[in-house]
């Protein structure tokens, strides 16, 4: 996954989509950051991010997205964008055996 640089624009997006941590920290893990962006970024913010994220990167985000971040509607949409229809199952949390 290509790193997303910290710029004025990406910091603004980071403040919006991962409001609970500083942009520098949010952008350190581009897969996690993009998982939040796929759910919470608006069209203008995604246009900004797509300058740094290729289609291959987007596919990698979907393949490696942490469980519990992307909502079902966004999951279906972004999988369709990369040509996967029907979308595979959402990432699921796995609990250790008891």
Our measurement of the CA-to-CA distance between the termini, rounded to an integer number of angstroms, reads 35 Å
Q: Helical element count?
A: 6
Mean pLDDT across all amino acids: 96
Shape field: globular
Can you put this structure into words, describing what you see?
- It is globular and about 45 Å long.
- With 98 residues, the chain is mostly helical.
- The protein has one domain.
- The termini are far apart.
- Helix content is 54%, strand content 0%.
Helices, strands, pairings?
Elements: H1 8-17, H2 23-26, H3 30-40, H4 43-50, H5 55-64, H6 72-81
Task: Explain briefly what this protein structure is.
The protein has helices at residues 8-17, 23-26, 30-40, 43-50, 55-64, 72-81.
List the main descriptive attributes of the protein structure presented here:
single chain; 98 residues; mainly alpha
């Amino acid at each position: 996954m290509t790193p997303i640089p910290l710029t004025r624009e990406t910091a603004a997006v980071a403040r919006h989509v991962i409001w609970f941590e500083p942009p520098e920290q949010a952008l350190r893990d581009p897969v996690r950051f993009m998982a939040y962006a796929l759910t919470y970024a608006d069209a203008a913010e995604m246009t900004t991010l797509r300058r740094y994220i290729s289609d291959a990167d987007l596919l990698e985000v979907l393949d490696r997205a942490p469980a519990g971040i992307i909502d079902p509607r966004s999951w279906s949409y972004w999988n369709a964008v990369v040509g996967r229809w029907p979308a595979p199952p959402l990432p699921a949390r796995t609990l250790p055996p008891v």
